[in-house]
């Protein structure tokens, strides 16, 4: 039986992967991620930030989970993205800091069995809980070359922890329950570089490459393993076929198989490379006030890196999304809303539901 505060697909490996995108990009399925200065996917996108901007994101998930142990309804609340970015006065450049979710590993696993204890069969209930995950702190900058080029680079600090609790309860009143606690902590650094190229006002291309190096893993302050993290390669396009309509698509490939041997050595089920593809658009009804309630839409497909069962098929997810937003107080503040319907599956494990995301932005 599995109860997950985040997702049952985050119970293995390093957890369920985060996305590092702002709410206005979530509304388009993630299609504008490599062009969005409020997201954390491409440091070169900071070149288009118009003024000092701070963005905070909160998400609420409502999902139905099914696995061999049964089904359940679960909820989770997260704060996956924070961005502060702005231009450098007097220079064609911008800098930004962001915090985003790298992986989430919140879950509770419960099992029931009968063991032989001094020749007497005794029922036992085992529960393993994990709380925590990995976070990505990014310091990045971008430089604009004329009106058509922007290049950028980012430095990433990847850190986090998993607080593990294991409890065994015996179905016998004269036997005391037992519990064990431990904490896994992680630390690593990464680097990213990207570019954005505009071909006129109606077409643009973006690309990013990122290396996350390796992750040092400590258990209760003792080094137990080093885990190799993936390279990321991304390519995106943006097109404006009409004055009121903008379309985009992007793909991200991550080499998660680099961590496979390390996770197998830790007793896990290994990891596989992933690909993520997103396409979407934004329709603006009022060109004089494009910041007033645009309509965003999109779809996304992605492979999941960590196997739930050894030798099983690779998990995947598909989602469709819609969103909108508005600016007020002379455009110094804003709010964005996105709603995603998500389907995930791997062998006998599946889940589907809705994820509601709200982003609040301030431009002092």
Topology:
Blueprint: E1 2-3, E2 16-17, H1 23-26, E3 53-67, E4 70-87, E5 93-104, E6 107-117, E7 120-145, E8 149-170, E9 178-198, E10 203-211, E11 214-219, E12 222-228, E13 231-242, E14 245-254, H2 260-265, E15 274-283, E16 295-303, E17 316-328, E18 333-346, E19 349-362
Antiparallel strand pairs: 1-6, 2-5, 3-4, 3-19, 4-5, 5-7, 6-7, 7-8, 8-9, 9-10, 9-11, 10-13, 11-12, 13-14, 14-15, 15-16, 16-17, 17-18, 18-19
Describe the structure.
There is one protein chain. The protein has 364 residues and is mostly beta strands. The protein has one domain (2-362): Porin, CATH 2.40.160. The chain contains two helices and 19 strands. The protein has helices at 23-26, 260-265; strands at 2-3, 16-17, 53-67, 70-87, 93-104, 107-117, 120-145, 149-170, 178-198, 203-211, 214-219, 222-228, 231-242, 245-254, 274-283, 295-303, 316-328, 333-346, 349-362. The chain has a 14-stranded antiparallel β-barrel with strand order 3-4-5-7-8-9-10-13-14-15-16-17-18-19. Strand 18 and strand 19 (349-362) form a beta hairpin. The radius of gyration is 22 Å and the shape is elongated. The protein starts with a strand and ends with a strand. The mean pLDDT is 91.
